Each structure stands twice: as C-alpha cells, then as structure tokens.
Amino acid sequence: VAQGLQQAQALSKLTTELVMSLRIFALMWFALPRAGGQACTGECAGLRDDDVVLMQLNSRVRGADTHAQRAGRTLYSTNPAESARFVVTYFNNATLVTLPPCDQATRAAVKVQAWGLTMTYVFVKDTTVPGGSFSMDELVLKSNKQVAAVFNGSALWSPWVDNHDGWGIWFLNSTKVLEDKLQVLVYFDPSIIVRFNIPHTTYTIEFEGLVRDAEDPGALSTLVQSYGISTDPDLCRADGTPTADFVGPQLYWRKATFMSSNLTSAGLWSERVLGAMSTTSPYPSPPVEGCEAAMWDDMQNFSLHFVRSGPYEEGMYPPLDAMAEDSEKTFLQEAVKHNHFEQYMYNSLIFEVSSLDPYVKRLQDNGFPFMFAQNGPQYIVFAQIPGNDITIQFRSFHTSGGDPIQLDMCTETF
C-alpha cells in the first residue's frame, strides 16, 4: 500500500509539472512579439481579455532590445547568509548556491528557476572597497528602520519601499508565510499584491497575481483573510490601472522598480541604452505637487519602473537627493576616474548580453558614465544612471574592442 501511495504521489507530481510546463510554453509562445504587430483596434471585438493584452504587448515591445536578458541582482547585505536563507524560505523554486569564499568579504547566493531561466541573487558584505559619504552599512540600517515603520503600520509608506523587484504571485510561499507569521503587506490593485522586506538589505520584494495563479491558492486566500488589506499608500494614482503589465505574471520576474531622484534622466537612459519604450504610468505627468510620480519603461517581457514618492520623503535619511548625488559623485570618482569598484555598485541589476559592443557604443554616444572591466573570462560594463543611485551591469563573454580594466574580483565572480 505504501509503495502504491508513493507511486501515485509521484505520478501526481509529474502530471502537475507537465501541466505547468505546458502553461509556461503556451505563455512564452504567445508572448513572443509578432512581426508587424499592431495596437488593438476594432479587430479586437470578440477577443478574450488575455488576447487583447497579448496584442497590446506585441505592439508595446516593438523596438525594445531583445538581447539584454535580466539575469539577477547583486545586493549589499549586512548579513548575506541570513538574506539568502530568507529568500529561499519564502520563495518557491529558490535554492541556495554554494560560492567559493572571498577574502575580506562575505557573500551568499540564491538561484530562482523561472520560465526555463535562472535568476540569481547574490548578497555581498564588503567594507574593503571605497565608499561615499554614506556607508552601505549605514544605509541598510537607516532603510531597515524606515521600512519597518511601514510594515508595522506606524508609517504609510517610505521611498525605500520603492526599491523592489516584482515577481508573479506563484513564487510566494504563502504556506510558509502563514506558518512563520512573517510581517508582510497585502494590497489589492486590482490583483493581489504581497510585499516583504529582504532583511539586511535596502530592497523589498513584491508578488502579484490572482489567487488562482498562486502555487497554493488556498494558502494565499487564507493569507489575505488573515492579514487583511493594507491601506493603499498610492497618491494620485489613476483608479483601476492594472499593475500586471504582461501576460502570465505568475510565472516570472516581471519588473525592477527603483526610487529615483531624477525620473527624466532615468527614463532617457533606459530608452537610449536598453532600447526600452516609454509607457504611460498611472501617476500625473508632468508631476503634480503632493502626488507621487513615475516613469515606466518596457522591454521584452520586462519593465523598469522609476518612482519618486515625494510626499513620503519628509524625515527620510539620508535624503534621496543627497544620496543620489553622493552615489553619482562616488561612481565618477572611483569607478570612472580611478577604475575602482565602490560600495554603491553592489546594489546592481544584471543583464546578460550576447556582446557588449552595442551597449558600450550607446553609452559613449550619449556621454553616459561607465566602467569597462574584465573579470576572469567575462566582460562587464558597470553603468550608473545619471542623477540616480541606480547601477546596471551588462555581462558578456564577447567584446570586440576597448581596453577593459582587469577587475579580478571574487565577489563579482558567480
């Protein structure tokens, strides 16, 4: 009997995985951009909502760079091991990765399997590299205190919470959240949004989707009922604007959101360097006093959101503008002028590309600052968006020109 039960459970698991694989394949197939895709017009009559979204998606992504694939992040952490264990505990499809130890620095990594792709989060603590006026340890301490006030209900919002990655609701381990009574925020906008803070870092994670899209719909329903809906912190956001930009958000990492001190600069950079396409955000444009403001840019199946939560900046320390100025100054002084890796660069979004050539050219043509390095067999371009504390990495095994510095950094080897 026991053997029969084991066989039945194995067959059930295999069937579930097969169904999920077919769903993923179907969504990947239909989400591919079609040549000559057009915006939805009268021909949409009679189509399901999903079909309409697909047609709009095909229209939006034309011209976007299809070669830059999101690959993961590096995040500065005051306790890398704890940050990594936290992500593995409350993420579905996440596993710890063993990395070789680094001298004078500690790190830990997590890999998340999504849509046939592997996304990597690498948490690093390194006080040996140059820093700015605000040390990363200090920023983590200050941000965690201000974010905690949001999660315990004593504050409605903080710009620090704008720093987050957006994942589909399938990746949230609702059962474990309930078991551990983890402190989370729950919103309805119009799908379910669950957010938690990654401890010892300056970043949070947002999970979004419908209850039916959860890995365990029953557990997610219980979670929503148990925690209740948090007070909506959005100021001046257009009512009814869906935040799920792409079809099947339950299946992958769909966006990276940054608090931004210069929205115009951020949008211009992403459009000129990444080939992203500007889309209408649900916030007033041009910005209105007393309202939040945002710049949304779409790539192929991925979005970059830049947000300025001005009304919530009062009491923020360090002030957003001062931190962005310090980050830019430190990057120009250490990375661009002296070819030194610096602490702010540890908070970075990573794209893998087939060749660095087009990105180096775009950065040069537009006068955007960057550091060109070789780390072992891999070439890396570290770029900072002017006027913002935002670092982007482009990684590739190919470049046909230039004179990269020899980085040879253990913490950036993974």
From the structure above, extract its key features.
414 residues, 8-stranded mixed sheet, alpha/beta, globular, 9-stranded mixed sheet, 24% strand, 9 helices, 30% helix
Question: Your description of this structure?
Answer:
The protein is 30% helix and 24% strand. With 414 residues, it is of the alpha/beta class. The protein has a 9-stranded mixed β-sheet, with helices on both faces. Helix 5 crosses helix 6. The longest helix is centred in the N-terminal third of the chain and has 30 residues. The chain starts with a helix and ends in an 8-residue tail after the last strand. 44% of the residues are buried.
Uncertain runs: 8-64, 243-247
State the end-to-end distance: 46 Å
Which percent band covers the strand fraction? 15-25%
The number of E-state strands comes to 17
Q: Would you tell me the overall average pLDDT?
A: 85
Task: Decide which structural class fits the backbone.
Answer: alpha/beta
- Helical element count? 9
Computed over alpha carbons, the radius of gyration is 21 Å
Q: Shape, please?
A: globular
Brief summary of the model shown:
This protein is an alpha/beta fold and 414 residues long.
List the helices and strands and how they pair.
Layout: H1 2-31, H2 49-60, E1 69-76, H3 80-90, E2 94-97, E3 106-114, E4 117-125, H4 136-151, E5 164-168, H5 174-180, E6 185-188, E7 192-197, E8 204-209, H6 217-227, E9 253-259, H7 263-273, E10 277-279, E11 293-299, E12 302-308, H8 320-337, E13 348-352, H9 357-366, E14 370-375, E15 378-384, E16 391-396, E17 405-406
Parallel strand pairs: 1-4, 5-8, 9-12, 13-16, 14-17
Antiparallel strand pairs: 1-13, 2-3, 3-4, 5-9, 6-7, 7-8, 10-11, 11-12, 14-15, 15-16
